Amino acid sequence: MTGPDPRQVAPPHAAQPDHQPTAPFDPLRLCVFATVALLGWVLGPVALLGFSVLAIVGYARARRAGLLRSRCKLGDTRLVLLYLTVLAAAAGVGIYVWID
């Protein structure tokens, strides 16, 4: 079976021949944000430590590969790495207090 997905409705402007049909906006990021928030709520500082260490590893690799500016609001990857390190340290303190 070929052709468009019958479950999707074409936007009104797609019927006009001078416009290219566009795919509808997929709010996947919102789903990702909600999942991260849920994990943060359930796991608390453990989730913060995990996500911050994962981000530190990712940004360190990207910086070694030549990325000097990030799309992150902080811009410079050194500032992003510093921010993530502070978050990881805060998570470590939070875990220590939580266990104690």
For the report, how would you describe the main beta sheet? Answer: none
Number of strands: 0
Shape: flat
C-alpha end-to-end distance:
61 Å
Output the radius of gyration: 21 Å
Helix content: 55-70%
Please describe the topology of this protein.
Elements: H1 28-43, H2 45-64, H3 77-99
Helix pairs in contact: 1-2, 2-3
Characterise this structure.
The protein has 100 residues and is mainly alpha-helical. The chain is built from three helices and no strands. The protein is flat, with a radius of gyration of 21 Å. The N and C termini lie far apart (61 Å).
What distinguishing features does this structure have?
100 residues, mainly alpha, 59% helix
Short description:
With 100 residues, the chain is mainly α.
